[in-house]
Amino acid sequence: MQEKISKGQFSKLVTLIIISTVFLTLPRRLALVAQWDSPISLVLGYGAAWFLGVIVIWLSLKHPNDTFIEYSKKILGPYLGSLFGIMVFLVIMNLNILTIRLAGATYIAAGYTQTPIIVFAGATVLLSVWILKEGIEVLARVAEFFYFPLILSIAILPLTVIDKLSLDNLFPLLAFGLEPVLSGAMLAFSIGIEHVFLVGLLISKIQNLDKKVYHQHLYGVVIGAFIILLMVASTIGVFGVADIQRFYLPPYQLAKVVEIGAFINGIEIILLGIWTIASLLEVTIFLYISVHILSQLIYVSYRDIIVPLAYLFLSMAMAPMDNHQVESEFTIVGQFGILPVALLLVAFLVPAQLFYQWKTKQKLGGDSNKEAK
């Protein structure tokens, strides 16, 4: 089976991992930190995440046939490169476990309390394993199939409540100075940066790879960030910051107040359908990243470890915890997992790559001089 994807599919995967389950959970998390400045924080954080993605693409284009784990070993050496890979794997593993848990916990929060959480989470993981067993090409096609329905469904939700939106709820901006803005930006960055790990793995899978991948990456980030921005601004505009901080899933509450004509009141069941697709895609993408990183660290085929790794993640996701604890864990993984890895990437991989290029150039120059003599 062909293990290649097009640039268009790459762009769609970037958008979907940015939106995925975040569209339902991020409005509250940002409101708790940045309050009315949430939209500004989101733009700053996602802008920084895009820039880091550009750095990863630059590194990847220098090693077009390698994933970021493989070229990390070339640049940093086998030991430091493997250590960096292990760090990334542990962060993504934690995110995957939390996402699996959230995939099931959301249904419980929505009122399906009689059904065990493992039913929802287990079904999501089972479908993810089936998709990944078929390869990256099938994952890309699944993402392509759901792309427009998912984007349009999420984008239309704020438009259906525009008559309930109050501009007064969006102000005052910068009321407490820059500290909430920067704190919110750090949170948004730790979430937006998740797509960078996917980018580092997918670059080597793109057909006819060239510098146009920069544009496709930018397109994917802009679409994803705009959808999240729309959701953050509309939930604050309708409910106000105080209510957003109180709601566990603000967009779910937004869907409840939708009124279309005299017949349709509330579309929360539709939102749960969107959530089902989004959580499936995110769990699948995170599982793909996890199995590929581990397979390149221990030198086995990724298909051989999909099932045991998925079973391990599902088992760990079923640990006793409440929904707010899951939310706190996401914040902890972001601040003490993703952010340090991102800083290490910039602080070590970029200078190491420049040194690697210089060393290679010197070696080639030395060989040329020997041949000339």
Molecular structure report:
There is one protein chain. Strands 1-2 form a two-stranded antiparallel ribbon. It is mainly alpha-helical. It is built from 15 helices and two strands.
Going by CATH, the homologous superfamily would be Amino acid/polyamine transporter I
Mean pLDDT: 83
Q: List the total number of helices.
A: 15
Helical content (DSSP H or I, runs of 4+): over 70%
* The number of domains: 1
Order of helices and strands: HHHHHHHHHHHHEEHHH
CATH architecture: Up-down Bundle
Task: Give the N-to-C terminal Cα separation.
Answer: 49 Å
Structural class: mainly alpha
> Widest sheet: strand order?
1-2
Largest sheet: 2 strands, antiparallel
Radius of gyration, taken over Cα atoms and rounded to an integer in Å: 21 Å
Short description:
79% of the residues lie in helices and 1% in strands.
